[in-house]
Amino acid sequence: MKDRVEKKRLAILRVLRDAGDPLASKTITDELLDIGYDISPRTIRHHLKSMDEEGLTEYSEKHGRFITAAGIRELEASRVFEKVGFLNTRIEQMAWRMDFDIRSQKGSVIVNISFIKKDDLEKAVELLIPVFKTGYTMGQLVRLYNEGEQIGTHSVPEGWVGLGTVCSFTLNGVLTKTGIPVQSRFGGLLQVENSEPTRFVEIINYDGTSIDPLEIFIQSGMMDFSEICDSGSGRIGANLFEIPSEARRQAVRIAGRMEKLGLGNVLKFGFPEHPLLEIPISIGRAGGIAIGGLNPIAALIEAGLDVKSHAVSDLADFSSLFHFSSLPARIQLFR
How remote is the C-alpha of 225 from its chain's centroid? Predict the structure, then answer.
């Protein structure tokens, strides 16, 4: 009984979160009925009253019911076992939603969002630029967001600045739009020796996690970009993906065009059905290794800066991105 009640409460919170705007209880009821929940308007009102008292939702006589920040946190933290594999779904959804056209160079791409304190911004840029220069970043384009700006389900906190970096799954979106299906298998720590990738030392499968693997590795301090910048050796974030063998040649060309646009960096394409850095590849497929989009943030964490990151966070128009070398000048507008 308790489990059924929790499922219904979470379903109500999801409807409110996904709507983005306040909803009347009747609208919430209709939405839940549409997705298969057998629930009465009276039960909805009961749950909403209870969640109002807990601070998970809030009622406005003028606009209706909306989810609070506490409600969003409750959604993110609850029933984690149901979210295993959620990241894979999120990747597919965002790759489908982005509409960047590589020929016209117009449209949206997927970005990761990281929040940096304004007081740390100058120091952060000093650390970021050498990382971008190593080439171990997903492209060379970034975007800045001011405090209060809404980015997907996240809002830039007061006193902070949002940094958008190109997400590696932008590659998935571009390939998908050209008719090449992509399967992202895992995110991992990639060992680099003398500027050459050698092997994965840690991996987390995307279909077995609810959190982006690179977020875990970065927050755990498992990367070492200070060493990478100094000697060309160390551990970086990367992910392994697979494509149909027949599409390999076309995918290589597309990845090259993305790199020229500052949107991507595929470290390595394997040959059909051949292991890639000791990782077995499925029959009828070829593997590839893409650089992790959150890699620049690892350098900030290593230096002790307080940074909050959200992988596969939102879409950004390609025209709003700029080259990382412009960061020192751009941050002057955010002081």
Answer: 20
Strands (E), the chain: 57-60, 64-67, 108-117, 141-145, 150-151, 154-155, 160-166, 183-193, 196-205, 234-244, 266-269, 285-291, 307-317, 322-323
CB 115 within 8 Å of CB 160: yes
For residues 211 and 10, what is the distance between their CA atoms, to the nearest angstrom? 19
Q: Where are the domains of the chain?
A: 2-78, 84-335
Determine whether domain 2-78 maps to CATH 1.20.1630.10: no
Instruction: Establish how many alpha carbons lie within 13 A of residue 218's alpha carbon, considering only the half-sphere containing its beta carbon.
Output: 28
Q: For residues 215 and 309, what is the distance between their CA atoms, to the nearest angstrom?
A: 7
| Residues whose CB falls within 8 Å of the CB of residue 119, separated by 6 or more in sequence, listed in order | 159
Contact yes or no for 255/270 (Cβ under 8 A): no
CA torsion, ordered 266, 124, 219, 149, to nearest 10 deg: -90
Q: Is 73 exposed, middle or buried (0-12, 13-18, 19+ CB in 10 A)?
A: exposed
As given in the structure block, the two tokens for residue 183 are 């399967």
Q: Is 333 exposed, middle or buried (0-12, 13-18, 19+ CB in 10 A)?
A: exposed
Q: Give alpha helix (H) positions in 114-269.
A: 121-134, 170-177, 213-219, 225-231, 248-260
Tens digit of pLDDT for each residue in 148-204? 998 877 889 999 999 999 999 999 999 999 999 999 999 999 999 999 999 999 999
Specify the pTM.
0.77
β-partners of residue 194 are none
Nearest to 143 by CA among 279, 314, 335: 314
**172 touches 272 (CB < 8 A):** no
Domain 84-335 belongs in CATH node 3.30.70.1360: yes
